[in-house]
Design goal:
It contains eleven helices and seven strands. The protein is α/β, with parallel strands linked by helices. The strands form two sheets. Strands 2-1-3-6-7 form a five-stranded parallel β-sheet, sandwiched between helices.
């Protein structure tokens, strides 16, 4: 269901565009000619089904304009390659970059949509040669494809996982170089970043951000202002969809996302950290 098509109980995100970007960001549109903090990330930053997501909560506490540049289902590709986003991050006093998973980016094995990174476009000849029995024309989304590939062959999938991790690292370093060291990295999840030895090959057995390890994040710390870890409390996780706004059709999707209490916990940690930069 499109985000700008409202059903009963659905939330109006007041979608808007900035400059010549083709991306619809969460509105209302904000001014870019006054001091601000930029928030880049995926579905959690965007605040799907959340009336007041954590960037807005931080703004209320901090007293500084906080502009939400979150994109639903974003991968590193759109964050690193969307020219407007880079300009917006450079123009900010500081940028908060949410850590997103490895699955939604183009790599040696497959290509994703340049703006809707969760959309699978095509498999490379290399991936087709590794999985000759798979019909890749049946896939529309990256996570579904990865789950199927693992089911076909866990042993061959280990090569896919390694490629995703390496491509993610390369793309993250590119993004941080383009922001020129003005980024704070945000880990927002239900658990701490796993050790490399704890990451399993099966994507279904790994929490989001998918396949991102502590060792990978440690390699990025030198390229960012700092790394902020927000591990959600059991209370926030147990709250489920309480306080979220969604239509009946959107209920299954809402159950997989963070609720208002989780956003509140993230905002509390971020507010304390950002006071050092604004």
């Amino acid at each position: 269901m499109s985000y700008d098509v409202l059903g009963a109980g659905a939330l109006n995100y007041a979608p808007c565009r900035y400059g010549n970007s083709r991306i619809l960001f969460r509105g209302p549109e904000r001014r870019l000619d006054a001091p601000y903090v930029a928030f880049l990330g995926g579905t959690e930053t965007y605040g799907k089904f959340i009336k007041t997501p954590f960037p807005a909560l931080v703004e209320s506490s901090l007293g500084v304009n906080c502009i939400n540049f979150g994109i639903p289902n974003a991968g590193i590709d759109v964050l690193a390659n969307e020219g407007f986003l880079i300009d917006a991050a450079l123009g900010a006093q500081i940028s908060v970059v949410q850590i997103v998973g490895t699955q939604n980016l183009s790599n040696r094995f497959y290509t994703v949509h340049p703006r809707r990174n969760d959309r699978f476009i095509s498999a490379s000849p290399l991936l087709s040669s590794i999985y000759p029995e798979v019909d890749f024309s049946e896939f529309h989304f990256t996570r579904h494809m990865l789950n199927i590939l693992y089911g076909v062959s866990p042993q061959r999938f280990a090569v896919v996982r390694q490629e995703l991790q390496e491509a993610w690292m390369s793309r993250m370093k590119l993004l941080l170089r383009r922001i020129q060291g003005k980024a704070v990295l945000l880990w927002l999840a239900d658990c701490s970043p796993p050790e490399a030895s704890d990451v399993q090959t099966n994507p279904a057995n790994n929490s989001d951000p998918l396949f991102v390890t502590r060792q990978m994040l440690e390699q990025l710390e030198a390229h960012a202002k700092e790394f902020v870890q927000v591990v959600l409390s059991q209370k926030a996780l147990a709250a489920g969809t309480q306080g979220m706004m969604f239509s009946e059709m959107e209920a299954p999707a809402a159950q997989k996302l963070l609720g208002p209490q989780a956003h509140g916990e993230a905002a509390q940690v971020l507010t304390g950290m950002l006071r050092r930069y604004v």
